[in-house]
Every structure is written in structure tokens, then in C-alpha cells.
Design goal:
A 6-stranded parallel beta sheet has the order 10-9-8-14-15-16, sandwiched between helices. A 5-stranded parallel beta sheet has the order 5-4-1-6-7. It contains 16 helices and 16 strands. By secondary structure, the protein is an alpha/beta fold. It is elongated. It is about 35% helix and about 15% strand. The chain binds adenosine-5'-diphosphate and magnesium ion.
Length: about 450
């Protein structure tokens, strides 16, 4: 990775300010899912074990610049304290004399957590004064909050004006896993895209077009594409104003020899609720007043067949309304299939809050190669955009050996393109389109 990490400074005796993503669900004053807290423990322990004093900061929910009692971080601090096996006191406010004193008293091996950063509107406004105060709490800044890296806030971007900024171990894992999809992916590479919001994912389809061999589109996403192909989709979730864009994606895929697999059959329901009447129909027979709520068995079969040769798979977005168990068959079937593929050596990377929740529900999350903790951030990363919270981290000086001898190949250069060409040439249909295929775009260096 080209960013400096916590392995690049000596923690002994330093006060380290860490931005973590402890935006976790809280119910009845208890943390309902602590996976984000657990994900940050390696970075915190690494620093504590090496004699640093650690000041943690996070947001929780959307308090919009006011103190909201139910959004206090106390339950998080309690959970973290149990995980670290040491006390995690929490300040009453991110600002103020009390907080400053508590920070000043902190000794090596001790932890302090600031109260919810978003109790002040200055956090999201990336206010300079607020960032300067946060910066005064440490000598070194570490960002381990990949989930907020796509936001330029005081605690992710502003603070780096005052402190040297390093990536935490979780941030590093995210950058390495996601940039592998853009830079040095093993082909065949398949992307399974589902979920609800076409608008949020068209950019990803577009940026991955020259890198992916096969797109499998399901879930609510698929409806807009099915309509673009001339099917009527009844009452299904739809983004009508994006039908033209969907059509353009289909045309672009055709020209570039990228295979797009859409559902052949879907489960339709009279209402999108538990216990509603439902049946399976081919996609050209979706009844007027029904909604497509899941991919059908033929589609599951087609998807798994297409995924079988894949060496790399990226999955974002459930393939049906999985919150209603009857409409979760497609999502669960693909989850099980991909878990098995990952176990037999394929690289399977999953991003997206709901996709990860679906995996956790069936207990398959830890079977995958990498689960991204950031939904929006992982999508923006794969769109090829620079994430502000990553750009501001210190750059590693190019290592003279790797700079001259092992220059990392760009997607447009030797390794990725011919590999993909070779993979595609095996498919007769794709081979004919190969000639018209433009050179793959170089991977935009997000993770410099
Ligand atoms: P992620 O959080 O993994 O990025 P999204 O937020 O884009 O995924 O989408 C998740 C939502 O998509 C889920 O709440 C699910 O119910 C919904 N969804 C999936 N398929 C359909 C469908 N056919 N119709 C309506 N909603 C759907
Ligand atoms: Mg979501």
C-alpha cells in the first residue's frame, strides 16, 4: 500500500488520536451489533501494546449538532472496555476544559474516548477551529474509520492539517482489498450487483465495465434494467428516470464484450410484506399490480453457473427483499455459493451495509475473503473516486527497488488487459466483440 500506516511510526510514549467508526446500532442502551467495534480493536491494541496513550473519537447516528441523550457513546465505551480488558472512560463533550485535562492526564497504555463528535455541527462542516482542537489531543493522528473516509469532516480531513496522519490496520485492509479489484484483479472477475438504489451504483458499473468479465444484476437494481430491455415490471421498485442510463450501460457492455446477466425469472408478490401472496414468473410476465421481490430459481441457477469459473467476485446489494424471509432465497443461495467459492480459493469481496447484514444473518460473513465495513465508502472507492479521508493520509516514499524493478502495472498495461482478453476470448460471443473493445482505463490511483 502506498499510504503510511501505524507500522510507520514509533508509538512508544506518544499520544495517538484515532478516528474510529463506532457508528453502531444501539437498542435499550446496549450495543446491538459490535462488529465495527471489534474491527477497530487490532489497531487500538497494537498501539497500546507499544506504549502509546490512545484518544478515540467517533460519531454515532445523526444528532445534527445537538446533544441527543440516546446518541451518547457510553454503551460503546462499555463494550470496548470489555473487549480491551481495560477501562475506557468517556468525556462529557468532545470540547471543553474537562476533556483537555483528561487528555493531559492520560498515560501510556491508557485509553480515553471523546463523546459523539457530531454533537457539534462543526464536525460535519469540517470547521477549522474544531479540527484544531481535536488535533490538540494527540501528537499523531490515525484514521481507522473507512466507513467515513468518503466524507471530508473535521475528524477525518480537517485534523490532518495539525497532525501527521497514518492509516490504521482496518483502513489498510480496506484499501488493499478494494484497490486489488481496480488494479491487479485475477480473471475471470464477476460483479454481483443488487440492492435498491440504481442511482448510487451506476458509477460503479461504469467504472468496473473495463475490468469485469461478467456483471450479474439482481434485486431492485434489475428492474430498471429489465424495463430498459422492454419488459414491464408492474409495481416493482424502479428508478424510471434512469432507464436511459441503464440502456446505455447495456450498450456499453455489449460493445466492450462484458457479459451482463439479468434475471430470467423473478418472485413477484402482491404486497412487499411478510405473508403476502407470491409466485415465480418469467421476467416478461410480471403482472401489472405485482412487485418483483426476489430472483427466481432459474436465475439462481444461471448466476451460480456464471460464477463458477470466477477467480474474483465483488458483491454489493441483496438480490431480493431479504428482510422478509420468504423473499430472501436468492440472497441466501448466492451467499452460500460465494462462501463455498471463497473456501475453495476464489477471492470474494462483499461491500454494503445490507449485504453484510444479510451475510451475517446466515452466519457466512467470516467465510468471505473480505467484508467491507463501509457501504457508501466502498462504492465510491470502486467508482474510482478519491476518498478525501484517504487522500490526506501520508504517502509512503517510493521504495527504490520496487520503483525501478517492480513498477505496479496499470490496468491499461500488460497484466490486466491481456489476462482479461484471454479470459474473454474463451467465450465465442465475447471474442467477436473484443476487437471493438477500447483499452481498459488505467486504474485511477485512489490509494496512492
Ligand atoms: P447495500 O446496503 O448492501 O449497499 P442497498 O442499500 O443498495 O444494499 O439495498 C438494500 C435493500 O434493497 C434492502 O433493504 C432490500 O430489501 C432491497 N431490495 C433488494 N431487492 C429488492 C427488490 N426486488 N425490490 C425492492 N427492494 C429490494
Ligand atoms: Mg443499504
Amino acid at each position: 500500500m502506498q499510504k503510511k500506516t501505524i507500522r510507520d511510526f514509533a508509538p512508544q510514549g506518544k499520544r495517538v488520536l484515532i478516528r474510529v467508526d463506532f457508528n453502531v446500532p444501539i437498542e435499550d442502551g446496549k450495543v446491538k451489533d459490535d462488529s465495527r467495534i471489534r474491527a477497530a480493536v487490532p489497531t487500538i491494541m497494537y498501539l497500546l501494546d507499544r506504549g502509546a496513550a490512545v484518544v478515540l473519537m467517533s460519531h454515532l447516528g445523526r444528532p445534527k449538532g445537538k446533544v441527543v441523550e440516546s446518541m451518547r457513546l457510553r454503551p460503546v465505551a462499555q463494550r470496548l472496555s470489555a473487549l480491551l480488558g481495560r477501562p475506557v472512560p468517556i468525556t462529557g463533550d468532545p470540547l471543553g476544559i474537562g476533556t483537555r485535562d483528561a487528555v493531559a492526564r492520560l498515560k501510556p497504555g491508557q485509553v480515553l474516548m471523546l463523546e459523539n463528535l457530531r454533537f457539534h455541527s462543526e464536525e460535519e462542516a469540517n470547521d477549522e477551529e474544531y479540527a484544531r482542537t481535536l488535533g490538540s489531543y494527540g501528537e499523531v493522528f490515525v484514521n481507522d474509520a473507512f466507513g467515513t473516509a468518503h466524507r471530508a469532516h473535521a475528524s477525518t480531513v480537517g485534523v490532518t492539517k495539525y497532525l501527521p496522519a497514518y492509516a490504521g490496520l482496518l483502513m489498510e485492509r480496506e484499501i488493499v482489498a478494494l484497490s486489488s479489484l481496480l488494479e491487479s484483479v485475477a480473471h475471470p472477475f464477476a460483479a454481483v450487483i443488487g440492492g435498491a438504489k440504481v442511482s448510487g451504483k451506476l458509477g460503479v458499473l461504469d467504472n468496473l465495465m473495463d475490468r469485469v468479465d461478467t456483471f450479474l444484476i439482481g434485486g431492485g437494481m434489475a428492474n430498471t434494467f429489465l424495463l430498459a430491455q422492454g419488459n414491464s415490471v408492474g409495481k416493482s421498485l424502479l428508478e424510471r428516470d434512469l432507464v436511459d442510463d441503464a440502456r446505455k450501460i447495456l450498450e456499453k457492455a455489449d460493445k466492450s464484450g462484458t457479459q451482463i446477466i439479468l434475471p430470467a425469472d423473478v418472485v413477484v408478490a402482491k404486497e412487499v410484506t411478510r405473508g403476502a401472496e407470491h409466485k415465480t414468473v418469467p421476467v416478461n410476465k410480471i403482472p401489472n399490480s405485482w412487485s418483483a421481490v426476489d430472483i427466481g430459481p432459474q436465475t439462481i441457477e444461471a448466476f451460480t453457473t456464471a460464477l463458477e469459473p470466477a477467480k474474483t467476485v465483488f458483491w454489493n446489494g441483496p438480490l431480493g427483499v431479504f428482510e422478509v424471509p420468504t423473499f430472501g432465497d436468492g440472497t441466501r443461495a448466492i451467499a452460500r455459493y460465494l462462501a463455498a467459492r471463497a473456501e475453495s480459493g476464489a477471492t470474494v469481496i462483499v461491500g454494503g451495509g445490507d449485504s453484510v447484514a444479510a451475510l451475517e444473518e446466515v452466519g457466512l460473513a467470516d467465510k468471505m475473503t473480505h467484508i467491507s465495513t463501509g457501504g457508501g465508502a466502498s462504492l465510491e472507492f470502486l467508482e474510482g473516486r478519491e476518498l478525501p479521508g484517504i487522500s490526506v493520509l501520508l504517502e509512503r516514499e517510493p521504495d527504490p527497488v520496487s520503483a525501478s524493478a517492480k513498477k505496479p502495472p496499470k490496468a491499461s498495461e500488460k497484466s490486466a488487459a491481456p489476462e482479461k482478453a484471454a479470459a474473454k476470448a474463451e467465450k465465442p460471443k465475447a471474442a467477436s466483440a473484443q476487437a471493438a473493445k477500447p483499452a481498459a482505463k488505467p486504474a485511477k490511483a485512489v490509494a496512492k
